[in-house]
Amino acid sequence: MEDLVRLARTMMIRAYAPYSKFHVGAAVRDEEGGIHGGCNVENAAYPQGLCAEAAAIAALVAAGRRRVLECAVIGPGPEVITPCGGCRQKLREFGAEDMKVHLCGPDGLHCTVTLGSLLPMSFGPLHVA
Ligand code: THU
């Protein structure tokens, strides 16, 4: 878990967030144990911005993986952040309800919750299978 938090923190530092100035980092662990990071990437056309979790998931898929076993998200503080609604659904695509989501602030891990608690009664891939 420390490796995920460390990568998420590195990602947060690299965020491109000139508009909100709100840097977010994320890291996900795949089914082989590999980890992948992402940061938010904003755009002058504001709605085109990308969340950190989405970037981390894209890196995992680009590496040829298909499952998210665990995720860490870190924000700049002082409030601990949680994945936005869209990112909860994106995580759901590649993980189960018992996926651990580690919520972090600048001082480290605050708490660990499950994706199921963040996105109850979720719609997932099996609904459209
Ligand atoms: N952001 C993320 O990267 N992940 C989230 O789950 C919440 C919000 C980013 C989007 C935007 O660049 C900035 O945080 C402020 O909303």
Walk me through this protein's architecture.
The chain has a single domain (2-127), classed as Cytidine Deaminase, domain 2 (3-Layer(aba) Sandwich), CATH 3.40.140. The protein is 29% helix and 22% strand. The protein has 129 residues and is α+β, with helices and mostly antiparallel strands. It has a five-stranded mixed β-sheet with strand order 2-1-3-4-5. β4 and β5 (108-114) form a beta hairpin. The model has no long low-confidence stretch (mean pLDDT 97). It is globular, with a radius of gyration of 14 Å. The protein has helices at residues 2-14, 52-62, 85-94, 115-118, and strands spanning 25-29, 35-39, 70-74, 100-105, 108-114. The site of tetrahydrodeoxyuridine (THU) has 13 residues, from α2.
In short:
With 129 residues, this protein is of the alpha+beta class. Helices cover 29% and strands 22% of the residues. It is built from four helices and five strands.
- Structural class label: alpha+beta
- Give the topology string: H per helix, E per strand: HEEHEHEEH
> Tally of extended strands?
5
CATH architecture: 3-Layer(aba) Sandwich
Bound ligands, each once: tetrahydrodeoxyuridine
Domain module tally: 1
How would you describe the shape?
A: globular
Biggest sheet architecture: 5 strands, mixed
CATH superfamily: Cytidine Deaminase, domain 2
Return the CATH topology: Cytidine Deaminase, domain 2
Name the helicity range. Answer: 25-40%
Number of helices: 4
N-to-C CA distance: 32 Å
